[in-house]
Amino acid sequence: MSTPNPVASAPAITALRRKDLLSIAELSPEEIGLILDTAEAMKEVASRPIKKVPALRGKTVVNLFFEPSTRTRTSFEIAEKRLSADTLSLAVASSSVVKGETLVDTALNLEAMRPDMIVLRHASSGAAHLLSRVCRSSIINAGDGMHEHPTQALLDAFTIRERKGTLAGLKVAIVGDLLHSRVLRSNIHLLTKLGADVWVCGPPTMFPAHLAQMGVTVTSRVDEAVEGADVIMLLRIQLERMQGAFFPSQREYFNVFGMTEARVRLAKPDVIVMHPGPMNRGVEIASEVADGPGSVILEQVANGVAVRMAVLYLLAGGASYEETA
Ligand code: CP
Question: How many other C-beta atoms can be found within 10 angstroms of the C-beta atom of residue 60?
Fold first, then answer.
């Protein structure tokens, strides 16, 4: 019995006309819509007794993670397996990177074995762009330094759309470490492209340059940011990227910016609370909020698999699969 094509019922599916997924900044609203629509069809695969379709049969995907990851790495691996790709996750700590081999040399040596796609997470902003220039394989950015984390923003948008029906006109309050967050940058690009009213809030010491020019409202008053919000998105305080002290203590940060139940009550009654993970409970978010009725944090994780299946499928040339399935 042939496996049904999960995207056959999705509206107006065409291949994404690009080799790589490097950033949200480079995507049009139509491309974002195509990825989200395709992810909707892909999500159905997770409810089947046999969670597998042949879309990427014969394709090889290498996962190359130079930074720690729980959610992104596992959901890419699960997505690849659900699409029947052959997958390999390089354990960087036991690779020749520890002997000093560069990122480009590592990638070129992997390329010599003819993979079709490389999923890259790296501490340097621009690492995925660099590989896209030297590699024949499709490069998918799984987070580059403080630059972008495109699939995170896509799964966030998917989760908001699923809960609210649309992103246009929603008030989205993003609160936390604005300075170091690649999730923030990708989300600002995506949410503003889809018509959301985006407010960003954090300590003034952590406002990145040019934030106000990105089409968002900037404030350091958290009550103002969350008042009437449809969506509250918390950002992790990234202690590992901090060179100096941006606030007096984590306890002080929680008192001023931490998302408590009292602050959530300032938002709309049906507000959803999001966090990309990993969470610092008691720093940027109270446990009662993280585990509370408005929290969609684990839905975000579940949706990450469908969104990454969609990205892998479309970059591989979704339309050509449909023609031959
Ligand atoms: N959200 C996210 O990127 O989580 P990981 O670092 O665990 O992949």
Answer: 18
Going from the Cα of 3 to the center of ligand 1, the distance in angstroms, rounded, reads 31
In three state form, how does the secondary structure of 50-117 look? CCCCCCCCCCEEEEEECCCCCHHHHHHHHHHHHCCCEEEEECHHHCHHHHCCCHHHHHHHHHCCCCCE
Mean pLDDT (the chain, rounded): 91
Pairing status of strand 231-234 against strand 217-219: unpaired
The two tokens of residue 111 are 């390329």
* Res. 220: pLDDT tops 50: yes
Q: What is the mean pLDDT of residues 275-291?
A: 96
Q: Which two tokens stand for residue 98?
A: 């520890």
Asked if residue 134 lies in contact with residue 108, where contact means CB atoms within 8 angstroms, the answer is yes
Better-predicted residue by pLDDT, 171 or 93: 171
Out of 67, 69, 119, give the residue to mutate to test ligand 1, the one with the largest number of ligand atoms within 8 Å of its CB.
69
Q: Active-site residues: which are they?
A: 71-72, 99, 121, 149
How many Å apart are CA 194 and CA 284, to the nearest integer? 26
Q: Which atom of ligand 1 is nearest to the CA of 277?
A: 1
Answer whether residue 320 shows pLDDT above 50. no
Q: What is the pTM of this model?
A: 0.92
Query: Could you tell me the CA-to-CA distances from 50 to 4, 55, 311 in Å, in that order?
Result: 12, 14, 21
C-alpha–C-alpha distance, residues 253 and 150, integer Å: 27
Tell me: pLDDT of 3 over 50: no
Query: Strands across the sheet with 217-219, in order?
Result: 217-219, 197-201, 171-175, 231-234, 272-274
Closest ligand 1 atom to the C-alpha of 72? Answer: 8
69 has pLDDT over 90: yes
